Structure formats: structure tokens, C-alpha cells
# Entry
Amino acid sequence: MDALLPTDLSGRKVLVMGLGAFGGGAGCARALVQLRAEVTVTDLRPADALQEAIALLEGLPITYALGGHHREMFEAADVVVVNPAVPNESKWLQVAHECGCLLTTEVNLALSLVADLPAIAITGTHGKSTCASLCAHLLDALPGTTLLAGNLGGSLLEQVLPLTKEDRLVVELSSFQTERLIAPPGWPKVAILTSFGSDHLDRHHTVEAYAKAKRNLLLAQDETCTVLLPSTGAEADQWSELAHGTVERLDKNCLTDFGLTTADLPFSEPYRLTSALAALRAARLLGVDDGNLRAKIHSYSGLPHRMHAFVDAHGRNIIDNGVATHPEPTTAALEHLGENVVLIAGGKDKGLNLQQLCRTCAHCPRLYFYGEGGQRLALECRSIGVEALVFETCRAAMEAALKTWIPGETVLFSPTFSSYDEFRNFRDRARIFLSFCSSVPVGLHEGGHETA
# Structure
């Protein structure tokens, strides 16, 4: 990647490579128009698959090259803005280099615009969004605006344009975003690693490459910065060694420093404790006093699809943990909940280790799995004597689990695998589950098959 300032883009031909699935590409294109660039958008998908994103750009002076990339568009471009979803192996990145294009990302452009604003940046395998949203909630006690952005959706570049010197930034960054990160010197003021485990090996190929991508968050920090880390873990140890500024390791004993106990936290799961502690400490570092911290944490309502427990219209005990796309949060949820938990899980397989999850599944009265991920999970469960029902689709598994509910049980929707086999994203999948909780009554159900 090349270090570029947004002011460098005025009058230059800028190619946006990939519209993206969460509005980031469209928002980036809008922001580039505001910055007076000559914008072309290219995507491998055809126009009919991108109508929602294209509608967001209606009326703007933007050229489209959809349904595939072509060398001519790179030859005509001065700058290419690379979508996080574009893999490093893409031949078009090499073509861009051959054509003399400067390469950047909308995150890098955005950060150069707000380099002087106080910033908290959060990464990790799990707990990023909870930590980021809680940080932003706590920081609202300060004057000015707190922007919560990044991996949560939308274009960071577009979102930072209205910020002033009175404002501050909380950014959640995925490994896809940190992989190409070029941050301004001394950024971020506070860096947080919420947790670390193997993930996204379909993109990074090795755990070490995945870890290195996340460690990029430390590269621009200096001695005035702070790094907040879990109390234990080899990767947290690695971050501690690489840090340029102050390092703090967080455990539950830190709560007493804020005059709080675990009962004061907005969630009870032990594995989410680091996210809460990091948010409290980061907000204090940016100037929130302890009185406001205690008051604000009691009013935090949390993000949807994260261990949300409720009783549905049919009297069933439900927990929506639709955010789970990895075995670790599902395992932790089952361990926390204990007995009489019926699990719905499945989706696109990312090739992660399932052994601990299988052992935990042994305590479930019934298991409803679906898709290629569910098929592998069922096979591995059976290898240790645990049987599961497997369905072709997520909807079929949901319906079966809800119809066969027995009083005293809890239905846990914690998919464990990626949503991209049947859905646009994890949110769409979770919304379908919630709609089924309303529409599917309790009753006899036949379907699915045990693993062969």
C-alpha cells in the first residue's frame, strides 16, 4: 500500500476496486466524489447483483465497470482504492502495480484525515464489536461527537468527513483491514486486542499470517500510546513485546479499580469480560471520569445477536447468538449455559478446529446442524459418540429445532460458521432466525438425518 492523503486525490482518476457487501464501497465512492476525485467503480459482480449499492450512488458523476475487471481501467487510473475483501492473491493487484497505480484503502485515507483526533482502535478474534460499541457509549459522556465506525459497516472515509477537532473516534478493525493498514504516526492513542484464536484461514492461510495482519495495529504507535491486552495468551504476550508505548494486561481484578463488580456489567458471560474492561480503561484514558463510567455502563443496552436471551411468543426460551461465526464463542456459550441447551449451528465451513466444541455438544439433548459446516461438525461429533440431525438449509434446521422444543430447554442459535453460503451476512441470518421464533409454533416435526 502507498501512503496517500485525501487531498492528493483532487482531480486524479481513482478506481474503487470492489463495492463490498456492507455499504463500504458505495460510501467510499461518495466520499471520493466529495474529495473531487474522478471516480470509477469496478466489481467482479454484474450490475444486476449490485443494484442496492448502485442505487446509493444515483446522480453522482461516477463511471461503472461491472461484471469483471479489465486491464484498461487500471491503465487509466492514477490511484486504486482496494476493498478489504480483495485477497492478496488477486491478479488485479499485480496488474495495478504493473500499470503504475498507487494503491490505498479507504481506511488508510480516512485515518490520514483525522490523524489528530483521539482514537481507540479495536481488533481481535472475538469481542471486537461489543468492546467498540461499549467504548463509544462510555465516551458519549464527553463533549463533542464519538464516531463508532470501521468493521461495523459503512465507509470509514465517508463517516470521518464531518468530524471536527472536538470529536473522537472508536474504530473496530478486522484482520482484512489491518492487513493493509498504514496509520498516521502515533495512531491509535489506545489499541485493544480483545482476544485471539485461529480464524479466517481461508484468507490468511496460516494462523501466523492472521496474527501478523492484526499486529499491524501497533506499527504506528509511539511511547505516548497505550495497548490494552487480555491477561493471558501467547498472542497477547507477542503484542506486549512489540508495543512502543504503555502496556496494560486486563483481568477481573481491574474492575475494583473502577468501583465495579461483575454484577455491574451489562453481560454475565466470563469470556466477554476483557471487552468490558478494555472499554472502561480506554474511555478513562480519553478523559471519562469514574463516576460517568459507572453511570454509563449501567445504561449500555448492548448490540443485537450477542447472547440475547428472551422468551418468544410461543413460550420458548431462546438465546440469539447469531454473531457467532467461530467455534470458540459457541463453545463458551454452551459451557456458560450448562444443561438442557438445544444448539442450532452450521453454515459455510472455514476449516477451523471443532474438537472442543464437539466435546461440549455432548451435553446438549439435541443438535440441529446444517450446511457444509454443520455436516463436518456432525461427523466429528459422531466420532466421539455424539449424534446430531443434519439439514440441507439453515431455515430447515431452525424450523425443526423450534418445533421440537420441550419445556425447560433453551434453544441456542449460535451458527459457528460463516453465513455466506445462504445469506448476505450474519445479521441477515440472525434476522431470519428471529422471524422464525415468531412464526414457527411448537409441534411435531420430521426431517433431517443423522450422520452416516
